[in-house]
Amino acid sequence: MKLLETIMQRAQQNPQHIVLPEGTEERTLQAADTILGKKAATITLIGNPNEIIELANRLQLKHIEETTILDPENYDKMETYTQLLFELRKSKGMTIDQARKLVKDPLYIGTLMIKNGDADGEVAGARNTTGNVLRPALQIVKTKPGVTVVSGAVLLFTQSPYGENGFVMMADLAVTPNPTAEELAQIAVMTGQTARTLGGFEPRIAMLSFSTKGSAKHELVDKVVEATRLAQEMAPDMQIDGELQADAALVPSVGASKAPGSIVAGHANVLIFPDIQSGNIGYKLVQRLGNAQAIGPVLQGMGAPINDLSRGCSADDIVQMIAITVNQAISLKEHRDAILH
Fold first, then answer.
1. Which of 159, 191, 303, 320 has its Cβ near the most Cβ atoms within 10 Å?
2. What integer is the mean pLDDT of 124-147?
């Protein structure tokens, strides 16, 4: 898994401040300890300090004293975050009393830290649902300018010769059930950008369908065709093609036969599914039947790096997701610096 090693090395070279709202969760604490040992990030843990320290001692963790522990019941920026949340949400009917109550929720504190410039990214979801993680993120951090849809990409490492030496990135597998053509185009471009940020390679993006270049006629195919056109207009510097069946996207001989002349067919390293149902089923089949390693989903389209975990994740999964979040934060800062200069 050379790519995962590269992601960790980038994080170690430029550590960012990551907040972990589930500070009293065992796997999260173990992951924080590992990350601190690798010096890949600075960490804020949110939770009761006594519980965190007691759990860290029981687990015999070595580096938790290097974290900042934020107690939701007693922290010095309570009023600052309350006013910030109120200002952001008062147009939606939020009262100051409602804001004062919500700022005690660790998931709200985490996103308010990012909005206030006190942290660079967040990782949560070992204990909370995706909906609970995304709600404050969308209310406070919101999406990137010009982006209307959030999506989840999975990094899939296989033993096959396809993709980028056996590696493919897939989306959307986690957030938007049935994207419109415009949303699907945004997902494709966002995933291409994630491939550049995390993979360090140029994306070859296949817009997947049950049809290849008009081999079938259906409104579902029409959506993918339109999404492909829109994505190509949005990102003329990216290699994007569709509609393509999965084998035409991945296998050189099939791509040459079914889509001759395509710069993507047979060589795709990014796969965009037409809906979350096909994407989620597809990657889990490959993961379980093909013994592939899946990392993610990595959230895309947010205004700042905020990533959701599966509640069945391991401590190692959280370590990898923290390193990915650091990489996203580095890329975001580089992009902002480039605009300023």
1. 191
2. 92
